[in-house]
Amino acid sequence: MSGDEATEQAPVRVIAAGISVLVVGAVVAWLLGALVPWPDPLLLAVVIGVVLANVVGVPEWLEPGIATHKVWLGAGIVLLGASVSVQSLVAAGPVVLALVVAAVCATTLLVEGLARNVFGIRERLSSLLAAGTGICGVSAVVAVAGSIDAKEETIAYAAGTILLFDAVTLAVYPAAGSLLAVPDQVFGVWAGVSMFSTGPVVATGFAHSEAAGQWATLTKLARNALIGGVVLAYAGYYARRGAKTTTSLGTVWTEFPKFVVGFLVLAGIASLGVFTSAQVTAIENAYDWLFLLAFVGLGTELQGDVFRNAGIRPVLVVLVTWAIVASTTLVGLWMLFG
Amino acid sequence: MTGSNRSPDTRRREAVEQHVRAVMSYWRALEPDWQSVLVAVVLVALVVGLEVPIPG
């Protein structure tokens, strides 16, 4: 049973117990963050989650509550809408959107090309790796898997590879950002176009700076919004090859991350000057706490046995693609915004 | 046990449990993305409507 299914069926008190674990982890990360200058509390929250899952061990009955971390991440992203600068969003929006579309197309095609032609990986696994690397990590793997009738084993293989890179990028990007003194906007957009799942992108962005976090989240949301189109494209491709697919035009909306709607609505309301500065501060504090909760849960997903699903060839494909995309986008973004 | 044998405390608890179950059934009927939006709406309402201070 998946985390979401378990959450749907679990009694309230069981879910509350799992959420309590996230709250305790978040408070510990916040307290530790006040004591040590580095790393940022958001990254400490991820580390606490990793330690909980891999050292302490999370009992199965707590999993439904811990699986709610995706809801807290989405809610935090919606609230982020209250503090983004709509002016800078409008000013840089078209350039960032063009970059996102270019990066998604290049990454997806690069993974497909390398996986099938150089590393001899099966086509469905290649497609899942391409979706996970190009769009939004494990969510994209699952969404595309549903539309191309991929086997459970193939999904686990692709998801394990993407989760491995989520862990690697969570360590590499903050270090690279500090060492190279990457400007906030460059760092945020770079993380948004070249990292994998949404949680690590948001954590890494905000660990660099508030402005970088906002740019990282905005860029990643634009990337996530393309998921419906990519699912549809893959379903069409496999249907033409005679595969059983279950996708229609409605998929574009079904797969669309709805919290983006909430984010845009709140950004629009905030731009009208409806909120006082004290209210904006309280909303910013609220999303900081929601992100802490979400990242403790995210850390619990980074388990050793999941990584064992990642085979050496899929890892090499994603590694080569990531190295090319991350280096070229960093240089390009520095020239554009640096 | 029949309704008339239950103490007022038990009846109150049962009523609360019934409300919680009703709320949870609405909650579970929502997609996780919409659950996120709902959490955010509630938090904004608390901050703006009730001036609840959220410490950072």
Structure notes:
The complex is a heterodimer of chains A (338) and B (56). Chain A is mostly helical and 338 residues long. Chain A has one domain. Chain A is built from 17 helices and no strands. Chain A has helices at 3-9, 12-35, 41-56, 63-66, 69-80, 86-118, 123-148, 152-179, 184-194, 198-208, 210-224, 227-240, 251-254, 259-271, 277-301, 304-307, 312-337. In chain A, helix 3 crosses helix 10. Chain A starts with a helix and ends with a helix. With 56 residues, chain B is an all-alpha fold. Chain B has one domain. Helix content of chain B is 70%, strand content 0%. Chain B contains 2 helices and no strands. The mean pLDDT of chain B is 85. At the A-B interface, helix 5, helix 14 and helix 15 of A face helix 1 and helix 2 of B.
Structure summarized in a few sentences:
Chain A has 338 residues and is mainly alpha-helical.
Q: Largest interface, per-chain counts?
A: A-B, 30 and 22 residues
Helix content of chain A: over 70%
Overall shape of chain B: flat
Distance between the termini of chain B: 49 Å
Distance between the termini of chain A: 46 Å
* Total number of domains of chain A: 1
Gross morphology of chain A is: globular
Relative strand content of chain A = under 5%
Give unreliable regions of chain A as ranges: none
Major β-sheet annotation of chain A: none
Along the chain, the helix and strand elements of chain A come as: HHHHHHHHHHHHHHHHH
Task: Round the mean pLDDT of chain B to the nearest integer and report it.
Answer: 85
The SSE order of chain B reads HH
Structure class of chain A: mainly alpha
Write the layout of secondary structure elements.
The complex is a heterodimer of chains A (about 350) and B (about 55).
Chain A: H1 3-9, H2 12-35, H3 41-56, H4 63-66, H5 69-80, H6 86-118, H7 123-148, H8 152-179, H9 184-194, H10 198-208, H11 210-224, H12 227-240, H13 251-254, H14 259-271, H15 277-301, H16 304-307, H17 312-337
Chain B: H1 8-29, H2 32-48
